[in-house]
C-alpha cells in the first residue's frame, strides 16, 4: 500500500503556520507530478509558481553554451523550488529537472508576492521563511565555491 | 599510539618495502600496494592510522592506510600528488622501493561505537582513511546499528574507489549517499555540499557516532549540522591533517595547542577539539 503524502500544512516550509496564514499563502495551490527527466521550470520562462517538493529529487541546472547542462545543486522532498517570482522580471534563471519522479505542491505566486487588494503585503511569516531558505542556500553556495576538495595530500 | 608493526627501537628508520602494484584512482590520485608478504603477520594496523612513506632521496610524507584491517597481508595507501614527494612516490613503479615507518596515530574509536549507529562522513581524499573503517564495519556488521556513508567530492571524476562505492551502494547493510560540487546531466546522485546530505538521514542522535575526515572547513560545517541534529560532541570524531614530520611527537611540527596531531591524533573527539578548531593562527 502506498504511503499517503503529507498534506500541505505539514510541508516543512509551512509547518507551524496558523491555518489562516497557510490559507493566505496558498490561496491557489495545485498538486502536480513530474516523471524522471521532466523539467519543472525552464530558464527564461515566466516565473509564477513556488514549488514545495513533497517527494523525489530535482536538479538545478544551468546550460552552458558549448558545454551543455551542468548540475549545480540537488533539491529534494521537504525543500522549496523557485524564487524568481519574487522580483521583476519574473523569469526563471535556471532549469529544474526531475532526477526521479517528483510530487509537488505548486503555489500561485500571485497569492504570495502582493500587493493586491486581497494580499496587500508579503506575509511576514512567509518572508522570514524565504529569507531562511535563501540564507541556507547562500551558505551552501559559499562552501561549493571554496572548491574544498582540490588540494590535500 | 603505535602498534609497533615496524621497528620501535629506531622510530625514525624507514623499512624498505617493494611496490606490488599501483592503481590510478583519479587524474591526480593513485593507490599503491606494498609487498609485506615477507613479514610474519603481514602489517597489522588499526583503521585511522597512518604511515610515513619515504620516496628514496626525496622526502617523507604521512599517508593514511586505506586497506582492510582484517587483511594485514595487504598494505594499501591512497596518495594524491600535491608536491615533489608525492610525485616521486608516483614515479616509483611496480617492483620499486618505498621506505615505510609506522603505523602511527590514534585510530577511529570503533570499539566505543559498538552497538551504536555509525555515520561515516568523507570529503575528497578523506575517504581513504575511512575506507578501512567501512571494511571493518562490514566485516563486523552485527556489532553495530545502522551504518551510513556520506561522501563528497569535487566532481564524479574526482571520486575515489568508484567501483567499490557502486558496490557498497547496492549493499543493504550500508546506506551510501554521494554528492559532488558540480556534475553533468548524466550524474544521478546528489549535487551540493556534504552537510546537506545529513538532512536526508533519519538520525537517532541519542545512539549515533559520527566519524569524519575531509577538508577542515567541510568538517566544521558538518559538525554544526550534526550538533543541530543533537549528536553529542563527545561522539563526533574528526581525523585531522597537520604538518607531520617525525610522527612520534618529537619535532612539534604538527602541534595543535595541547595536541601533537601525529601522536594524540590524527583522530580526536570534537569535544576536545572544539576550542581550537575555530581559533586562527594556532
From TrEMBL, chain B:
Textual note on the cofactor: Binds 1 [2Fe-2S] cluster per subunit.
Pfam families cross-referenced by the UniProt entry: DHODB_Fe-S_bind (PF10418), NAD_binding_1 (PF00175)
Reported cofactor(s): [2Fe-2S] cluster
InterPro entries per the UniProt record, alphabetical: Cyt_c3_hydrogenase_gsu, Dihydroorotate_DH_Fe-S-bd, FAD-bd_FR_type, Flavoprot_Pyr_Nucl_cyt_Rdtase, FNR_nucleotide-bd, OxRdtase_FAD/NAD-bd, PyrK_electron_transfer, Riboflavin_synthase-like_b-brl
Tagged with keyword Cell division: no
Gene3D superfamilies: Nucleotide-binding domain of ferredoxin-NADP reductase (FNR) module, Translation factors
Database matches in PROSITE patterns: FAD_FR
Source superkingdom: Bacteria
GO MF annotations in UniProt: 2 iron, 2 sulfur cluster binding; flavin adenine dinucleotide binding; metal ion binding; oxidoreductase activity
Location of the FAD-binding FR-type domain: 12-110
Biological-process GO terms, alphabetical: pyrimidine nucleotide biosynthetic process
Residues binding [2Fe-2S] cluster: 246, 251, 254, 262
Keywords tagged on the record: 2Fe-2S, Iron, Iron-sulfur, Metal-binding
PANTHER family: ANAEROBIC SULFITE REDUCTASE SUBUNIT B, DIHYDROOROTATE DEHYDROGENASE B (NAD(+)), ELECTRON TRANSFER SUBUNIT
Protein name: Ni/Fe hydrogenase subunit gamma
Organism of origin: Cystobacter fuscus
Amino acid at each position: 500500500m502506498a504511503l499517503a503524502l503529507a498534506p500541505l500544512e505539514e510541508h516543512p516550509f509551512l509547518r507551524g503556520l496558523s491555518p489562516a496564514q497557510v490559507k493566505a499563502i496558498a490561496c491557489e495551490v495545485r498538486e502536480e507530478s513530474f516523471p524522471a527527466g521532466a523539467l519543472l521550470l525552464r530558464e527564461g520562462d515566466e516565473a509564477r509558481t513556488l514549488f514545495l517538493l513533497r517527494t523525489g529529487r530535482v536538479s538545478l541546472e544551468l546550460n552552458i553554451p558549448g558545454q551543455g547542462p551542468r548540475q549545480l545543486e540537488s533539491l529534494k522532498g521537504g525543500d522549496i523550488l523557485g524564487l524568481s517570482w519574487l522580483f521583476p522580471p519574473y523569469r526563471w534563471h535556471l532549469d529544474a529537472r526531475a532526477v526521479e519522479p517528483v510530487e509537488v505542491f505548486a503555489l500561485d505566486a500571485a497569492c504570495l508576492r502582493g500587493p493586491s487588494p486581497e494580499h496587500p503585503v508579503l506575509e511576514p511569516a512567509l518572508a522570514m521563511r524565504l529569507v531562511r531558505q535563501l540564507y541556507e542556500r547562500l551558505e551552501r553556495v559559499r562552501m561549493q565555491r571554496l572548491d574544498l576538495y582540490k588540494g590535500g595530500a | 599510539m603505535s602498534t609497533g608493526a615496524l621497528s620501535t627501537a629506531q622510530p625514525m628508520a624507514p623499512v624498505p618495502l617493494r611496490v606490488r602494484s599501483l592503481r590510478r584512482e583519479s587524474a591526480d590520485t593513485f593507490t599503491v600496494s606494498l609487498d609485506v608478504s615477507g613479514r610474519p603477520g603481514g602489517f597489522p594496523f588499526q583503521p585511522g592510522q597512518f604511515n610515513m612513506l619515504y620516496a628514496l632521496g626525496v622526502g617523507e610524507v604521512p599517508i593514511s592506510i586505506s586497506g582492510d584491517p582484517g587483511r594485514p597481508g595487504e598494505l594499501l595507501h591512497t596518495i594524491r600528488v600535491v608536491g615533489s614527494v608525492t610525485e616521486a612516490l608516483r614515479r616509483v613503479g611496480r617492483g620499486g622501493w618505498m621506505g615505510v615507518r609506522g603505523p602511527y596515530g590514534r585510530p577511529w574509536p570503533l570499539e566505543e561505537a559498538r552497538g551504536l549507529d555509525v555515520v561515516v562522513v568523507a570529503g575528497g581524499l578523506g575517504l581513504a582513511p575511512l575506507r578501512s573503517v567501512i571494511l571493518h564495519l562490514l566485516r563486523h556488521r552485527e556489532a553495530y546499528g545502522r551504518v551510513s556513508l556520506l561522501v563528497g567530492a569535487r566532481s564524479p571524476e574526482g571520486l575515489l574507489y568508484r567501483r567499490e562505492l557502486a558496490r557498497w551502494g547496492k549493499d543493504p547493510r550500508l546506506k551510501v549517499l554521494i554528492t559532488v560540487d558540480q556534475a553533468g546531466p548524466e550524474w544521478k546522485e546528489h549535487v551540493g555540499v556534504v552537510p546537506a546530505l545529513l538532512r536526508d538521514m533519519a538520525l537517532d542522535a541519542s545512539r549515533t557516532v559520527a566519524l569524519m575526515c575531509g577538508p577542515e572547513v567541510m568538517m566544521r560545517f558538518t559538525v554544526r549540522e550534526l550538533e543541530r541534529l543533537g549528536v553529542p560532541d563527545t561522539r563526533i570524531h574528526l581525523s585531522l591533517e597537520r604538518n607531520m614530520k617525525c610522527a612520534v611527537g618529537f619535532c612539534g611540527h604538527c602541534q595543535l595547542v595541547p595536541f601533537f596531531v601525529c601522536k594524540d591524533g590524527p583522530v580526536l573527539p570534537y569535544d576536545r577539539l572544539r576550542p581550537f578548531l575555530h581559533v586562527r593562527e594556532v
